[in-house]
Amino acid sequence: GFALFLSQSQPSDTSLTSSLSGRANFRARGTSLRPILAKRSPPSAAAAAAGAAAGAPSVTLYQFQTCPFCSKVRTYLDYKKIPFEVVEVNPVTKSEIKWSDTYKKVPIAKINGEQINESANIIRHVADIIGDGQAKDNSVKEWSEWLDMKLVKTLPPNIYRTPGEALEATGVIAKTGNYDLFQKITSEYLGAAAMFFISKKMRDKYGITEGQEREALYAEVGKWVDGLGDKQFMGGNQPNMADLEVFGVLESVAGMSTSNDMLQNTKISSW
After folding, report:
1. At 111, phi and psi to the nearest 5?
2. What residues have CB less than 8 Å from 257, skipping those under 6 apart?
3. Rounded to the nearest 10 degrees, what angle do helices 241-251 and 138-146 cross at?
4. Strands 59-63 and 84-88
């Protein structure tokens, strides 16, 4: 598995390129998606009641803050204005998900009391409940497959590329949970050391050349830029599920060295 990233089954590759015109943006332009992705507290009783009254499901998300799969789930739920509670999982002990008998990765969600594993299943389960049929759109399916199979695989070898970058990422994780001092130190330093070495195995597994981690990321990002072309969103005038998922994945590295380098060296613009 990914340790700090969810390991999911991967679909077959799909070629998704088209002409590029101008400077593209992975985010929903003109919207305020990023502010609603800030660290949240559990929804208030009033918010939960309002959500229930409107037919929204009850959702508890077990996550790592910097996990791209977790981030894309948060993005979808936020954009759809579905109240949800976040439980930050300790990446070393994983004590918060000991109740899950067989599945020990994140994200895990409890949706109306039912355990749902993996980001794609969580998003599509919620979509079914609220009547969002976008998951059945062929274009959305293709981009979602590309995201999970190609783009996400370039992130761990970049986020944990050097000891400093690994510590940068696990430092974020340590700061987002309600851990005691020992747990914070364990999560930050042991996690960084472990992921630095694990990321090298992942790099080799995914066929990324040593020293070319950034270039692999830039190449995949370029496919999204090409696909956008002149469009504001992949969904046209409004973001569709693919827009939200890509935003969520790239948002997971916002502020890190990986993100800063991506913004400087690709046609993805700042958000």
Report:
1. -115, 110
2. 164, 165, 168
3. 20
4. parallel
